[in-house]
Design goal:
CATH topology of the largest domain in chain A: Heat Shock Protein 90
Helix content of chain B: 40-55%
Radius of gyration of chain B: 19 Å
Shape of chain A: extended
Number of strands of chain B: 7
Oligomer: heterodimer
CATH class of the largest domain in chain A: Alpha Beta
CATH superfamily of the largest domain in chain A: Histidine kinase-like ATPase, C-terminal domain
Largest sheet of chain B: 5 strands, parallel
Strand content of chain A: 15-25%
CATH topology of the largest domain in chain B: Rossmann fold
Strand order of the largest sheet of chain B: 2-1-3-4-5
Strand content of chain B: 5-15%
Radius of gyration of chain A: 35 Å
Number of domains of chain A: 3
CATH superfamily of the largest domain in chain B: Response regulator
CATH architecture of the largest domain in chain B: 3-Layer(aba) Sandwich
Largest sheet of chain A: 8 strands, mixed
Largest interface: A-B, 26 and 23 residues
Helix content of chain A: 40-55%
CATH class of the largest domain in chain B: Alpha Beta
Distance between the termini of chain B: 30 Å
Number of helices of chain B: 9
Number of strands of chain A: 25
Structural class of chain B: alpha/beta
CATH architecture of the largest domain in chain A: 2-Layer Sandwich
Number of domains of chain B: 2
Shape of chain B: globular
Chain lengths: 707, 207
């Protein structure tokens, strides 16, 4: 026996597509309005009647002046689940030429999320009558529940029947064509706040500055909630931003523009990088400083406008995130992980409440960025991950700007306070002088002089207090940062030790297993050596870890010149001579630093060790160490004319075990330790263009100077 | 292929021949069957070019801070459900929940921490090898591949409903692992037949 088997859909399938997939009511309305956009409507009216409490009169109506549907459209498209008509044709008819946005063919089930009963009224331009179709979701439910017991008679989705009829109604569509959805038996009541949020979200279906021709105007009305019919116009909330930065793709040079804050110029400057794997994007960032946030909150109190981070638009229509606003931060959808990052990293990261960003992508240009079917995120592809990282990089550039502004602000406030203090003292002085000249005024002015003295004392105290809290804040910030980096550090070291241990363990296991099989003698030797080397690596790691616990490494004042000379000319002089390395030191200014001298020595020693390996095969071996002061930073450039750094490891050379000198037995710890030490000194280390270019390598160390 | 052992493909950016685990593998498998790829794309390509051989992939997940291994797994699994994956990771906690879901739902054979004893890892590889050898669909695949290309393209079987399939169709269907298709149907029929034969004449078991 054999034959063919068919799929069947249980009658309750519609629930999966409606209630199950559409996460909230605003998304549901959005899905339906999106369909109006695809139907080439220029006008959509969304009307709520008696929705504040659920009753038989509660109704949601969505009416558009789009092309409408004939009976065959209803039977062949509307009632076909996952209909693909919009996937075959990508643009709607001229003059609209809209990129279809409803692609999955399930948006219409959104009506089930809203209410149990749906009536569709629709009319094409030349049809004499209006077609009315009734979809009774609630009745589906009832039917499905009744027959459920009997397996054989089980009701299938395709068995469900829907009534249709033609009716006369010339009034319904002003322009003679369109579609109207009437949803009743609502599942939930709608409050005014929810409708304001809806208004706000509908306003953002299209980006705020986007000139669509022909237009797509949305109207909202809820008389019973004191919301008279009004056009949904997005509030120009971006206008309140402190600064606006944008970057887009240059199609001529095929380069991607990025947000770039120039540290030296202290402003955003245009900057381009190679095209990215996720395709071209254009971006607008609006940053709000605390003052702007305050203004924003005051202006948009009791409206549903929020500063809420990144929104991504595809072909001019929003994809994510939209819909209901979540007041509780932890529950909020944070698709890019921006806020999560703030908890795990540091204070200098921006939160989504500080900026609005609008990212434009296109279906053709970014084919690997795909909407997840639940509309709340994107499919997790490699390209999407890259895009996320890319956007976060942009946000970090904004954070640099904020950092500079904060510093400026701090200085300004402190200067003002000091000036105020001086002014008040001046007043006291003048008054005292006046009394000296005209003693008769003493009695009259005494209370004023006393007040002035008090005021002067208060202001002086205030200035002092502000200085103290500033210092206290910095101390706490440093403490938190060091605790956090300690946690990262411990984590990194633990992984490092495990990683170094694994081959040693398995090597020992090999020897235990096969010794004394003489044919494997070479292997035994090899693994014994490996075990030895790995234990060396582990010892180095442990030493490094212990150095953090050492109490004797106290901060001290030292001369940078002494440290550099001490390491290069003292400790290593014999080795350099033996290996034929000539060393040049060029120190422009002798600077005194306060900090852990040993750490700087460690950094230099590790760089020397690297250079010696890189120079091993060179004839004229040179090391150059230069140092100069640049504004509030001390810079040390350490260079050699060795074989340079392999571009393949460039990006990860500061990570643990990513060695640049594997052939010479490098364990991949030197640069890792150098970076950790520089971090501990509040400094940085980076690879820069070689001073001996095209050969060699140069490392730039920067250390902050206290003014 | 000179031997009947599976290919052992190691895709891991930190793995080299110097590692003792490799020494252990050499004791169990011919060196020509062992292939190391530090670059994930090269490894993926190699496996895809050798789909006709029994293959066990030892796969690292984190490459340079990214879960590239999950993508390699997904890509190869799409092309053949018959490649056996052993996920070897330095630290399982680093793999995201989504990544783990992908691995489990895609039937990764085993997930093992890299610093486990080599013998334990070798044991898992042996288990995987047995698993491959015992799979009816795997055996069917080998059998199809023993035919010449010409033979593979000829109609081979016609079902009761009148559909005709070539050996190549069967191979394709076996590799996609789709339960509704001809390959799985044949594999199921073979098992049913075996059970039936055993039931009919119990005395001949093991002969």
């Amino acid at each position: 026996m054999g034959g063919k088997l068919k799929w069947k859909f249980d009658a309750s399938t519609f629930k999966l597509l409606g209630r199950g997939l559409i996460t909230d009511r605003i998304t549901a309305i959005y899905e339906l309005v999106k369909n109006c956009y695809d139907a080439n409507a220029t006008k959509v009216e969304v009307q709520f009647v008696d929705v504040e409490t659920i009753s038989l009169r509660s109704t949601i109506t969505i009416r558009d002046n789009g092309q409408g549907m004939a009976l065959k459209d209803i039977t062949n498209k509307w009632l076909v689940v996952g209909t693909s008509s919009k996937r075959d044709v990508t643009f709607s008819a001229e003059p609209f030429h809209r990129r279809y946005i409803g692609e999955k063919g399930v948006g219409r089930f959104a009506t089930d999320k809203l209410g149990g009963h749906l009536q569709i009224f629709t009319k094409k331009k030349d049809d004499p009558q209006v077609l009315k179709v009734t979809i009774d979701w609630a009745d589906y439910d009832r039917q499905a529940a009744q027959i459920q017991e009997d397996e054989e008679k089980k009701l299938l989705f395709t068995d469900l029947e829907n009534d249709y009829e033609y009716i006369d109604n010339d009034q319904l569509f002003e322009e003679g064509h369109g579609t109207q959805l009437v949803i009743t038996i609502l599942h939930e009541a709608w409050g005014r706040e929810m409708l304001l949020r809806l208004e706000n979200q509908l306003g953002r279906i299209l980006p705020p500055v986007f000139d669509l021709k022909p237009p797509f105007n949305i109207f909202l009305e809820a008389q019973s909630l004191d919301l008279p019919k009004r056009e949904v116009v997005p509030e120009p909330i971006e206008n309140l931003a402190t600064i606006h930065v944008s970057a887009s793709f240059d199609y001529d040079t095929k380069q991607q523009g990025v947000v770039h804050f120039d540290d030296e110029k202290q402003q955003f400057v245009p900057y381009y990088i190679d095209e990215q794997s996720f395709g071209p994007v254009s971006m607008d960032f609006y940053f709000f400083d605390p003052e702007a946030q305050k203004q924003f909150k005051a202006k948009y109190k009791n409206t549903a406008n929020y500063i809420e981070g990144v929104k991504i638009y595809r072909d001019g229509v929003i994809c994510t995130p939209f819909a209901e606003y979540e007041q509780v931060l932890d529950k909020r959808r944070d698709v890019l992980g921006i806020d999560k990052r703030r908890f795990t990293e540091a204070f200098d990261k921006l939160s989504t409440r500080e900026f609005i960003s609008i990212i434009h992508i296109t279906r053709d240009g970014n084919p690997a960025i795909l909407d997840a079917t639940n509309r709340q995120d994107f499919d997790d592809t490699l390209e999407y991950r890259k895009l996320k990282e890319f956007i976060i990089d942009q946000i970090d550039e904004l954070a640099k700007y904020r950092f500079v502004k904060r510093q400026e602000n701090r200085t300004r406030v402190q200067n003002n306070l000091r000036r105020a203090s001086a002014d008040v003292k001046d007043v006291s002085k003048s008054l005292n002088q006046l009394v000296r000249e005209r003693p008769e005024l003493k009695a009259v002015l005494a209370p004023v002089i006393a007040k002035a003295k008090d005021a002067s004392d208060y202001v002086t105290e205030g200035v002092k207090e502000s200085d103290t809290s500033e210092k206290e804040f910095l101390r706490k910030e440093e403490l938190y940062l060091s605790l956090m980096s300690l946690q990262d550090f411990a984590n990194e070291l633990a992984h490092g030790i495990r990683f170094a241990l694994a081959p040693a363990k398995q090597g020992a296991e090999y020897i235990v297993e096969f010794f004394p099989n003489t044919s494997l003698n070479d292997k035994f030797h090899e693994y014994a050596r490996l075990i030895y080397n790995q234990t060396e690596v582990i010892s180095t790691l442990v030493d490094f870890m212990l150095s953090y616990a050492q109490v004797d490494i106290e901060d001290s004042e030292f001369s940078v010149k002494d440290v550099i000379n001490g390491v290069l000319k003292g400790a290593h002089a014999i080795i350099f001579e033996k290996e034929g390395i000539s060393v040049n030191i060029d120190i422009k200014e002798n600077i005194q630093l306060t900090g852990k001298r040993k750490f700087l020595e460690d950094v230099l020693s590790n760089l020397i060790s690297n250079s010696r390996k890189a120079l091993a095969k060179e004839h004229e071996k040179q090391i150059l160490c230069e140092s100069y002061v640049d504004n509030d930073k001390l810079t040390i450039i350490f260079s050699d004319n060795g074989r340079g750094v392999d571009p393949l490891v460039r990006d990860k050379m500061f990570e643990m075990f990513k060695t640049t000198t594997a052939e010479e037995g490098g364990s991949g710890l030197g640069l890792f330790i150098a970076r950790s030490r520089m971090k501990a000194l509040n400094g940085t280390i980076e690879l820069v263009n070689s001073a001996f270019a095209p050969k060699g390598a140069s490392f730039k160390l920067t250390l902050p100077l206290k003014k | 292929m000179a031997n009947n052992k599976p290919l052992i493909v190691i895709i891991d950016d930190d793995f080299t021949k110097d590692q003792p685990l490799y020494g252990f593998l050499e004791t169990a498998y011919p060196t020509e069957n062992l292939h190391i790829f530090q670059n994930s794309a090269d490894g993926e390509k190699f496996v895809e070019q050798h789909l006709s051989q029994k293959t066990i992939v030892l796969l690292d997940i984190m490459f340079n801070g990214h879960e590239v291994g999950v993508d390699v797994f997904n890509e190869i699994s799409k092309k053949s459900a018959l490649v056996c994956f052993i996920v070897m990771t330095g630290n399982i906690e680093q793999v995201s929940r989504k990544g783990l879901e992908n691995l489990i739902n895609g039937h990764a054979w085993y997930i093992v921490q890299r610093d486990k004893p080599a013998k334990e890892i070798l044991g898992i590889i042996k288990d995987a090898e047995n698993h491959i050898d015992l799979r009816v669909d795997g055996a069917l695949e080998q059998w199809v591949l023993r035919h010449s290309e010409e033979e593979q393209k000829k109609p081979f079987i016609t079902t009761r409903s009148g559909n005709s399939y070539t050996l190549l169709d069967i191979l394709q269907s076996l590799r996609t692992g789709d339960n509704e298709e001809i390959g799985q149907e044949i594999a199921g029929d073979i098992l049913a037949l075996a059970v039936d034969l055993l039931m009919q004449d119990k005395t001949k078991i093991g002969e």
